[in-house]
Specification:
The chain is of the alpha+beta class. The chain has helices spanning 9-17, 77-80, 109-116, 136-144, 179-186, 217-225; strands at 21-23, 26-27, 41-43, 46-47, 55-60, 90-91, 99-106, 124-130, 146-148, 151-153, 157-160, 167-172, 191-199, 202-203, 212-214. The protein is built from six helices and 15 strands.
Length: 249
């Protein structure tokens, strides 16, 4: 049922136990019951079929909501990928309204869970432009850990991007709400512009703002085989590593 796009595996289990699913005309309430390719499965009077897995990479523009539906009828990412297929796709994680960059959308629930689960933590690289220059000590604080209202947060690596110390590249695998913006705010710096240039190894290279593409077979295989994000590493002197390769395009 989850593969047919009805809902998550947990939601499918709940539906099965309530007796609203039939296989070949018979009600099935047993979890884990085997279904053969030739079997006919109905839910709510509708025949189910397994959806083709879709993996779409979007270069999200500013002023776009990361949601599948918005009651206020604001511009959402779903309108940008309307021609990607008939499958019901979901954003993997979120980018807030004014954050731009790499966003993955898919109907592969297992992969989405893997990439957003705290124990896996797909790494994300952000290019932040701030309202003031940061100091080297403040960069170290971002890696050592910043105390936020909902608990401590730390970057995996950070560095200045280019000559300006108002532009910072930040690698992180935590996925809490507005975490990057809030980390800078805790230092007394406001994020003027935030762009995600990498998510789980995927970049927006040659992908214009507001445009999308399907992942290649190689990229999908990479994501499925990807291991947990590495923990913060230490440099040769035993200190936290703050240097990061340039994160801008």
């Amino acid at each position: 049922m989850a593969q047919a796009g009805v809902g998550s595996r947990r939601e499918a289990d709940q539906l099965i136990t309530t007796g609203v699913v039939t296989v070949n005309g018979k009600v099935v309430t047993e979890l884990g019951a085997k279904v053969r390719p030739e079997d006919i499965v109905h839910f709510g009077g509708q025949k189910l079929s397994i959806e083709q897995k879709r993996y779409v990479l979007l270069n999200k523009p500013k002023d776009t909501i990361t949601t599948t539906d918005d009651p206020l009828e604001r511009h959402t990412v779903m309108s940008l990928i309307a021609k990607a297929g008939t499958e019901r796709l979901y954003p993997v994680g979120r980018l807030d309204r004014n954050t731009t960059g790499v966003l993955l959308l898919t109907n592969d629930g297992d992969l989405a869970k893997k990439l957003t689960h705290p124990s896996h933590g797909a790494q994300k690289l952000y290019h932040a432009t701030l309202d003031r220059a940061l100091t080297v000590d403040e960069l170290h604080k971002l890696v050592e850990g910043i105390e936020l209202d909902d608990g401590p947060a730390k970057a995996d690596e950070v560095s200045f991007v280019g000559a300006s110390k108002r532009e910072v590249g930040l690698m992180i695998h935590m996925g809490r709400n507005r975490i990057v913006r809030r980390m800078f705010e805790a230092l007394g710096a406001e994020v003027v512009k935030l762009d995600r240039v990498m998510f789980a190894g995927l970049t927006k290279k040659e992908l214009g703002r507001g445009h999308w593409r399907y992942l290649t077979e190689k990229e999908v295989t990479w994501l499925k085989q990807m291991k947990d994000a590495p923990k913060n590493t230490k440099d040769e002197r035993g200190g936290r590593r703050t240097r990061l390769s340039q994160g801008s395009e």
